[in-house]
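Field reference: "sequence" (input) and "structure" (output). Example, TRIC cation channel family protein:
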Amino acid sequence: MNAGDGLLVADLVGVAVFAASGASAGIAKRLDLFGIAFVGFVAALGGGIVRDLVIDAVPPLAFGDWRYAVTAVVASLAVFWLHPQLSRWRRAVLLLDAAGLGLFTVTGTLKALDAGVPAVGACLIGMLTAIGGGLARDLLTGEIPAVLQRDIYAVAALGGAILVTILRGAGVVDPLTMTASALLITGVRLVALYRRWSAPVAAP
């Protein structure tokens, strides 16, 4: 498997994970089958669409490569049909969301760098790729987006994007290192939730 194939696989795994996260949130809100599939689709592909539009990769992969849309819909439907066997929806949503955050930060940053975007811009695009789907999911399900609250969410994505950019500059872009980077981002997000770490807020 070459680097391009590895990036595609990581991207599709991220799509499936965020779709499952969106579908889980939709089920928790008692949406119907179409609503669950739609929220899963938007959660999975919203960030990637923003990324592709910013780097002028049109049409976005969400529309130009059938594998992305099919992966998102299949993952959403799988969660819909399997949900009676699943429990603790809030924990499931948070875990899947953290995993998607890590995967999409890595793939979004690498795609921006491959498109010739300078390091600072690539970091921002990587962050937007990671948080865009979750932002759309929360808005569609009537929740205050996690990225706008005190949770360490966008900060974890930005830090991960910086790490990936540094590793890319050092020539370290093998699948094992990128997987470790995604796991690190996911771990930071989960530890922040467990320890209730938060960014500073303005005093009332």
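The mean pLDDT is 86.
The first helix runs from residue 3 to 28.
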